[in-house]
Structures are given as structure tokens and as C-alpha cells.
Amino acid sequence: MVGLDDVFGDLFASVDSVVLFSPSGSYYERFAAVDDLDVIVVGTENAVGAEPFVELPLEFEEITDRIRFGLEGALEQGVIEDGDTLACATSVFSDEIDTVSRVRADAEAQTGIYDLFVKSRADPEVVKAVLELAIELGKKGQKGKPVGALFVVGDAGKVMNKSRPLSYNPFEKSHVHVGDPIVNVMLKEFSRLDGAFIISDAGKIVSAYRYLEPSAEGVDIPKGLGARHMAGGAITRDTNAIAIVLSESDGLVRAFKAGELILEVDPEAY
């Protein structure tokens, strides 16, 4: 007679490691006690004192985002290797782990999302909100047409000092924050016009329509990318900000930190 172990046993067969997302202490101990089993814990905090441990900057609601970020972090830290087969256990329907996915680590599929969050001094929720806004713009465009946009997040005071206004700043006397659905609609509308959006570490929209003036000397961006990407790369070299750029020509979302490209993602595949 065939049992459940026979049906679902393949999930754990020949795995290189088990990845536990925010496990309880008792759940972790059950796996840690298994001989010759590599156990990796991923979460916003290491409540079980696990080693190795990969930190999440925030609780990703979507399971795919949670696993994608955790595995990119594990690859970045050298905890797992390209091609490893992993059993990823996480919670979906309750506070306890209730779902297991079999995943193969793929270094070539890394987007750089781990670097984006880890290397930013801005609030992770702010980074997430801006990234999702850029991705939504990349998918839908502005009134059905492709649109480009540049968001500079963090170190807003220094960024403002290294830029000048192109037009009236509609956010000058406001205290609105990115992530608010109504504000996001406004940002989408303003994205049709030239200039960068400047957003503080806490998510306050400081300005729109800013012309960035840092020197582009020494900034190395991939061939084929234009002035918007060059400006984004240069401003992050001269400040502690990150820049998230939506390309009008190829529709990709890219992010820069310290003058370097750290993320490239296709909105349609995200």
C-alpha cells in the first residue's frame, strides 16, 4: 500500500540543504537533530540562534518573494552554492510552517534584490514600495505607453544639494509618503515629465522634477543605457542614496548603489 511518505518523499530526496523560514524553536530543533542534514534559517530575526542564518529585511507576504530573497541572500553569503537542490519550508496559511517547496539554486537567475535591500539605508518598506511602483509602471506604462522614471531613495538632503528643480515641486509643502495608493497614482501621473523623484529614508516624497547634477566621471553603466541611468548611477556614487530606474526603451527596472548596478529585473517576469 502506498503511503504519503511514498508520494511526498521526493520533496526531500537528495536535497543538499533544508531552508527553514522563520521556524519556531521546536520546529528548528527537530531538523537540527537530523544527522548529516544542513539546515539554513531565514527570517527577520534569528530567534532560534541558528548558524547559518540569512536575514530578511522585512516579512515578505508573497511566498515567491520570500523564497527568492532568502535564496539570493544565501547565495550571496556563500551558504548555498549554484545548483544546490533545496527544500524550502515556510508558512502560508498559519503562523507555523505549513508549506514545502523544492527549489534549485540558480546563480544566473539572481536579480540583485538582496543587495538592493541590504545596501540601502532607507526603511526596507520604503525600498519595497518604490521597487513595486517602478515594476507596476513597467508593466502598465502610462496610459498604455512605455514610460521611463527615476526614483532616488534616501539621503534626501544631500541629493537635493546635488540637483536643481526643472519645474514647480508639487510636493514642496506636502507630507505625503510613497506606498499610499493615492500618492502612487500621483507619482504615476508625474512620471510622464522629466526629472527625478527624491524620496527620504522614511518614504516622504521630498520632490519631483529634479535634475541631478553629480559628475558622471568614472561611473560605469552597461552599454546602451542613457542619461537617466547615468544620472542614477552618479548620484548614488556621491551620496548614500539608491536609485531605482525604469527604462523607457527596454522596460527593465534597474537599481544603483555606490555608483554600481546592483539589480536588473524584467517587470513582466517579476
Protein model, in words:
The longest helix is centred in the middle third of the chain and has 17 residues, at 124-140. The chain has two domains: 4-110, 3-Layer(aba) Sandwich (Pyruvate Kinase, Chain: A, domain 1), CATH 3.40.1380; 115-265, YojJ-like (1, CATH 3.40.1700. It is built from eight helices and twelve strands. 29% of the residues lie in helices and 23% in strands. The model has no long low-confidence stretch (mean pLDDT 89). It is elongated and about 65 Å long. It is an alpha/beta fold and 270 residues long. The termini are far apart. Belongs to the adenylate cyclase family. DacZ subfamily. Diadenylate cyclase that catalyzes the condensation of 2 ATP molecules into cyclic di-AMP (c-di-AMP). c-di-AMP is a second messenger for intracellular signal transduction involved in the control of important regulatory processes such as osmoregulation. Its EC number is 2.7.7.85.
Secondary structure: elements and pairs:
Elements: H1 4-8, E1 17-21, H2 25-32, E2 39-43, E3 53-55, H3 63-76, E4 85-90, E5 99-104, H4 113-118, H5 124-140, E6 149-153, H6 156-161, E7 163-165, H7 181-190, E8 196-199, E9 205-212, H8 227-238, E10 242-246, E11 253-257, E12 260-265
Parallel strand pairs: 1-2, 1-4, 2-3, 6-8
Antiparallel strand pairs: 4-5, 6-10, 7-9, 8-9, 10-11, 11-12
The percentage of residues in β strands lies in 15-25%
Radius of gyration, CA atoms, in whole angstroms: 21 Å
Shape: elongated
Q: Uncertain regions: pLDDT < 50 for 5+ in a row?
A: none
